[in-house]
Amino acid sequence: MQTNDGQIIKPYSIAAGLDYPGIGPLLAFLIKSGRAKAVHVTDSEALKAAFELTRLEGIIPALETAHALACLGKIKFHRNDILVINLSGRGDKDLATYMKNIENESYL
């Protein structure tokens, strides 16, 4: 997240809320202390998860939430686990991004 001289490297994600580099030190602390776990999710995986939720439930998630949904397939759950998902944000503000990517038939 930094160059050799300590400058912040500009991150990129289609989800504007995930591009904020200033949160890096807090996340690093939480992960190192064992209070959080990081899961890598690509923009493509997030879009696929968003289209799946929209197709199955009629809910258009915000792109940030779509990244959280995409990580569900990467986490091992036990049979009796209870999963609560907070679908924060509004997907309607991200419709232009969704429409730009809908032509990729692998999302449908």
TrEMBL record:
Molecular-function GO terms, alphabetical: tryptophan synthase activity
Coiled coil regions in record: none
InterPro entries noted in UniProt: Trp_synth_beta/beta-like (IPR023026), TrpB-like_PALP_sf (IPR036052)
Keywords in alphabetical order: Pyridoxal phosphate
Cofactor dependence: pyridoxal 5'-phosphate
GO terms for cellular component: cytoplasm
Protein name per UniProt: Tryptophan synthase beta chain-like PALP domain-containing protein
